Amino acid sequence: MSMSICDLDLVAGVCHVHLNHAGDSPMPKEVVRAVVDHTELEAKVGGYRAAEIAAGRLEKVYLSLSRLIGASDPGPQDPRDEIALVESSTVAWTRAFYSMVETKEKELLRMSFPPQKELVILVSEVEYGANVVAAVRFARDHSTINARIKWKVLRIPSSVACGRKTGLVDLPTFKSMLDGEFPLVEESSTTTYLDPKSIAIVCLTHIPTNSGVVNPAREIGEMISDYNKRHTTQAGKLPLLYLLDACQSVGQMDLDVKELRCHGLCATGRKYLRGPRGTGFLFVRYEIASVLEPSHIDHAAAPVKQVITNENSLVGLGGKQEYQRGARRFEFWESNVANRLGLGLAADRALSIGMVTIERQCKQRGRFLIEQLGAIDGVEIHHVHSSNCGIVTFAVAGVDAIEVKRRLMKGFLIGDKLHCFHVSTCPGTSTPLDGVDRDILRASCSYFNTDLELTHFCDSLKLIADESRD
């Protein structure tokens, strides 16, 4: 009898092994229950009344996420003012990025400086494709709009080991960028040096989507912090900004924004954190958020105080534009309350297990998988020497990545059970500066995957690799 993949869930004796936690990790039962319960409450009393009933629990979500990333130490600042709840990590990143660079640009336009000023956006070589697209388009468009400012995007070179790039930011090279010693070859073939004062923002992807590389986010944060101390800025002005994309590390790594020293951090709910799809959050340090002007707003982020109009039908807002406190200015009025409650419970679960424990177990399983895959002829692991988390990416010689994924999902009979393995593929465009020109496979383990599951996975992959050579 022919069966579809969906039919396998209904057949006894089928074992599904989820190895796509970097894409979407299964939600714990209490998270599902919270989402369903609130949705059922909305069906009974309506969304607005349900939100009022859940208001106290919703506020706790901010505290849970703040604790998760180490932003909630006792102090005068309410940690809830540093968290914004949004729909995804990309939404969080773009709201922070556009606000940061546009506010930087406005600062310069209000100052007296030479006719043209160059501003630079630094990105890592494993920067997520969506981030690269946004940065390049902003630089292109705003260099055209404002003749006085020329924006450019530069990549921070990766280190090299065993004759290959590691994907890791090369720290000595990054230091040279901050010290004014990084050479730039102009079109005239003359060599100039990057002016560190021109750097507006450093964008770093902590763990990329296409490998297990873990960038030295803390060391980079320390360098930027030291630079900002040496080049003190005027009160109320922005320093050299540091935006960390932690989409793959939140829920997998033990993070502390005080140690990372980032000004902004974005994350999703659906990956290692095991929250609902369509959730994410943004951390922005309070003193930075208070200076930023959001690139997009509604009347929740920027409450209307006074509307002015005249006989010519012109409409304006009276008084100085005021925003919500801290990071709350990056939120919009409409939201999925049920999913946000689920996100909070996912954070609580991770905290109850302990992020140190989760990180250790993810790394152990990643190393185990690398060892097992490394023993299979025809399997090439991407960034094998610099991978250090639960994500492992690879290619099988002679077999297209999508075909390998399909065969793994179709399943292999091991003992008396059909084992179906859920992995994902990463196109080269997902991390366009990393030099990968083909689709590769991604197996991402979490703390609850077992060594036996990984062994069965590698045994099944070996069958595919062996068949390709026959």
From TrEMBL:
Provide the Aminotransferase class V domain boundaries.
Answer: 189-421
Superkingdom is: Eukaryota
A Pfam family hit:
Aminotran_5
**What is the designated name of this protein?**
Aminotransferase class V domain-containing protein
Naturally occurring in which organism (per UniProt): Thalassiosira oceanica (Marine diatom)
